[in-house]
Design brief:
The radius of gyration is 17 Å and the shape is globular. By secondary structure, it is an alpha/beta fold. It is 32% helix and 20% strand. Strand 6, helix 7 and strand 7 form a beta-alpha-beta unit.
Length: 233
């Protein structure tokens, strides 16, 4: 497991839980507005690999946090690329912690295995765009149908979950948001996250964020198709 970083304490990353957050190395997407380019870009890879945190260090830390933390959030940037993710989650569960997984949904087979083996308690999946426009943001064009498969797996699981979209004025309009929420129709929870114009993968990427009023229009559209929709500004 390539652990590129650890946030020891978070009250916001795992809803309703006090958690530690671990950041895995590598992603199969190249979203220009990515806020952690050091974990994605080849430019930083050699330096990051030199500072990979050994699993035994992480689990030693976790042992000491029994009774103080509720769970572990595994994210940034695509944890399902990690070869021993299943065993890693199992070790966390054996210590009595909840496990939250953040994913882009491109590996439905791995996601299904984790769900079937009861190694997850919460899943957060990013929905970047309507499927036909995914490549505009992610540069990813392989097995996009896997994203729909992951959506259905998550919706039909008994787990707590959320879907979310980072809204960027360059890429998204009302029609896009409606297509996105139709693709996750009747999901329990959907977040609209406003793009923040700093520390992006593409250094020249400086497109504006949406106003709260614009996001509220998106929210009104989304609420026709999902149970709950909230704005993270």
């Amino acid at each position: 497991m390539q652990i590129a970083g650890i946030q020891k304490f978070s009250l916001i990353d795992y809803p309703g839980k006090i958690a530690t957050v671990i950041f895995t190395l590598g992603c199969n997407f190249r979203c220009p507005y990515c806020h952690n380019p050091e974990f994605v870009s080849e430019k930083y890879k050699e330096e990051i690999i030199k500072n990979i945190i050994p699993e035994e260090i992480f689990f030693r830390f976790l042992e000491k946090r029994k009774g103080l933390l509720d769970g572990v959030s595994i994210c940034w940037w695509e944890p399902t690329l990690q070869k021993n993710l299943s065993n890693f989650c199992k070790k966390i569960k054996e210590l009595g912690f909840f496990v939250k997984l953040d994913t882009n949904g491109t590996n439905p087979k791995i996601l299904k295995s984790l769900i079937d083996d009861k190694l997850l308690d919460y899943i957060a999946m990013d929905i970047k765009n309507p499927l036909e426009k995914y490549g505009e943001i992610t540069w990813f064009k392989e097995n996009l149908e896997g994203i729909n498969e992951s959506i259905e797996l998550i919706k039909n699981s008994s787990l707590e979950y959320e879907f979310r979209t980072t809204c960027v004025a360059w890429f998204h309009n009302q029609e896009d948001i409606e297509k996105i929420v139709k693709s996750i129709a009747w999901a329990k929870l959907y977040y609209l996250q406003n793009y923040k114009p700093w520390n992006t993968l593409e250094k020249d990427f400086s497109w504006k964020s949406f106003s709260i009023k614009e996001l509220q229009i998106f929210q009104d559209i989304a609420q026709k198709y999902v149970e709950k929709c909230f704005i993270r500004s």
